[in-house]
Amino acid sequence: MKLALPPILIYSLRRLAQAIPVIILIMVGTFLLLKLAPGDTVDALVGDMGGADAQFIERLRVEYGLDQPVWVQLWRYMEKLATFDLGWSFVYEQPVATVLMDRLGTTLLLMATSLSIAFTVGVALGAIAARRAYSLTDNVISTLGLIFYATPSFFLSLMMMLLFSVKLGWLPVGGIKTIAGFYTGWDHVWDVALHLIMPTAALSLIYLSFYLRLMRSSVLQVADLDFVRTARAKGAGETRLMFHHIMRNALLPVVTLFGLQFSTVLGGSVVVETIFTLPGLGQLAYQSVIQRDMNTLMGIIFLCSIIVVVVNFLTDLLYARLDSRIELA
Amino acid sequence: MIEQSPILEIRDLKIALPEGSDRPFALDGLNLTVKPGEIVCMVGESGSGKSLSAGAIMRLLPEPHVHVAGGSINFLGEDILAKTDREMKQIRGNRISMIFQEPMTALNPQKTVGWQIDEVLKLHMEGNRAARRKHAIEMLNRVHIPDPESAYNAYPHQISGGQRQRVMIAMALSLSPKLVIADEPTTALDVTTQLQILKLIRELQQEDGAGVLFITHDFGVVAEIADHVIVLRQGEVVEQGAADQVLNHPQHPYTQALIASVPDLAPPPPKPVSTLPVVLKGTGLKKTFAAKGGLLSGKRKAVIAVKDLSFELHQGETLGVVGESGSGKTTVSRLVTRLLEADAGAVDVDGKDLLACSPSELRGMRKHIQMVFQDPMASLNPRKRVVDLIAQGPIVHGEDPEKARARARELLELVELSPAAANRFPHEFSGGQRQRIGIARALAMEPKVIVADEPVSALDVSVQAQVLKLLADLRDRMNLSLLFVTHDLRVAAQLCDCIIVMQKGEIVEAGVTAEVFADPKHPYTRNLLSSIPGRHWTPPVRNTDAA
């Protein structure tokens, strides 16, 4: 007997099955890697308290299960993870899941806006540069791309802060909202948007330059292909050529890069969130490393690997939609 | 027929190449006339400027690097060169249309066949969507595509190469243009498909009374289709006239040489080889490209490339393997050399089964069987000097490097290259010269058998003739045994003593070439032979020292 499932569903189920071992491997790998780092939660807590006697430290270790061998700790953690229990954060005194969910929104908002701006603007500028290849417009766009590409995001962040917050006073220097503002409705949205302008710019410009450069070379390449010549021989004008024949084919490598880069954007957001004191996952990750908050850190990694797997799956779906030669199987 | 006013008239056309090219003009003083209902063939080898002239008529030259430098192009009495871009857009695809060489790449992979035909109609035809769709399907019907309705919704990769070319033709002819420019439209196609496409172009052109400018390098195709022939060399017209005149009584030495290079369809007299020892014997060879995938990845159907193939190659004999694309002939060449592992069967080289060898034994056996590949550029390492390319094999097999290099220089002489070639790199040579290097490389191992996979199909016809002659010479002088894979029956006829005809992985007919050609038994062989372009035309001048 054969189940008559739609191919897309079969494909999704198979991708899900493939994702599980990947995530397990990531979790085991990071767990062991983190255990290699010197010091543990207790050291960090005791350090914060300004010291404690050896007996108290010993008791804390037993209480947190840190006296067990690494393999036992790993097994206990993976067992809990199998039931989607991410454990308890001893630093925040809350379940890890709660801590993460508080922060997830901010990070996703930052990433989504940065990436969509980087993608659309990058693709558009790249296409324009390619259509006017070697002209003044192209040179200006390409040089700008090179500058964005070469500027580290932390430097860009600091310079923007200096200019827009300190000198001009137009934009807030950090945080996600004005703390004493208590805005509601559209005022709140506007407030958050103002706070996000600089972080988004800092995070997106470097990716924008990736897409710009890739799109430019991709368009130039596709414009030389035979079917573009065919279309020209049919009497199609330049605009028509660009939109119907070149763009769709030129986008394919850019979409591939988009999927691949999603994970690096997560990494980049650590720096940006820390600089702009945004209460997101990146900042949380940074603090958790310093405080040796093992459970929270593992939770962040778990969440991130799920996000990356999901985004890669979505990219593949998008790719299949864009390229008719690819069949999901 | 009364004299009609010409559709296309080109006078003294000059096309300038960018500075620093090997010659100042790609085309120098082209004169040509296309009358209604006439097929004018423009013949020339690569670099003769034939494709650029098509670009000039469509005003699609890569300007400003390559541009028209003089002369006039008159289309229906109007000067094409004086038209604005907007006027040209109206003419392109509407009154002048073009058919390109590669049906695979000439269609947009992301749009359906219907969309692409519809695009021409949308650009030039009044009428709503339904009327356009009706017209497009009618065109698909006219080019004899089975089930036009479903082809209309198919993507280019979902239909075969021949059908794609039919789609191109449907697209080009959908608005009944006055002039059709066909740039090598059948070069990438199998011989049987080629004949069908040529017939189709003829048929549709006669219905519409359009003029056709047909660009080709193949004199067989010319003999099949042309009314009028123009022969180009290095941008200059060396000869033009009625097809019959040029084909059967060529005046210019270059035309004579070109025509003499066309391999004759009469096979060589059979050699009494069957008494000589067998050097290469394949028994029951099988290869299936397995179904890919399983539980966690995509599935793909298994493809049987070769099923149960057996053959014998005698000392000093040339065995041709012919067939259309997908017949498994290249797989055979890979199995025999064990570049691909067979699923079953045996390949006896000199009495030892190559397929049963252990990896270390295999390395020793490799020197007995060598290959010459199709693409002489891709098969030579661009970073190595010619002498090292040739000497590499013997050195790997333990020959003293100095001796191997000295021998390499001798081999270069043997393949008629100057000894100075030894210290140059592959990119400094022409295609024909590179193929000679490829042959020298194969010979360096002093193999018992040479397997040649389409060794001349990437070459111009005059160069092809030279390389074939060299192969035949070397074979006779060194008593070589050749397994010769080709899709070109003319080439097979000229070189091969015996022949195997393959279809879908199976031998449908085998025997002495002369007998198979004279009296084909299998319907597929008969079909292949009757599809050879220009088979009714016997080239007049037979000059073995061609070009």
Short description:
Chain A has helices at residues 7-36, 41-49, 54-64, 70-82, 96-131, 136-150, 153-167, 185-223, 226-233, 238-275, 281-290, 294-322; strands spanning 88-89, 94-95.
Describe this structure in words.
The complex is a heterodimer of chains A (about 325) and B (about 550). Chain A has two domains: about 60 residues, no CATH class; about 180 residues, MetI-like fold (Orthogonal Bundle), CATH 1.10.3720. Helix content of chain A is about 75%, strand content about 0%. Chain A has twelve helices and two strands. A two-stranded antiparallel sheet of chain A has the order 1-2. In chain A, helix 5 runs parallel beside helix 12 and helix 7 crosses helix 8. The mean pLDDT of chain A is about 85. Chain B has a domain of about 200 residues: 3-Layer(aba) Sandwich (Rossmann fold). Chain B has a six-stranded mixed beta sheet, with helices on both faces. In chain B, strands 16-17-18-13-19-20 form a six-stranded mixed beta sheet, sandwiched between helices. In chain B, strands 2-1-4-5 form a four-stranded antiparallel beta sheet, covered by helices on one side. In chain B, helix 6 runs parallel beside helix 7 and helix 15 packs parallel to helix 16. The C terminus of chain B is likely disordered. Classes of the chains: A mainly alpha (about 325), B alpha/beta (about 550). At the A-B interface, helix 1, helix 9 and helix 10 of A face helix 2 and helix 3 of B.
Give structural attributes.
heterodimer; A: 329 residues; MetI-like fold; 12 helices; globular; B: Rossmann fold; six-stranded mixed β-sheet; 19 helices; 20 strands; 35% helix; disordered C terminus
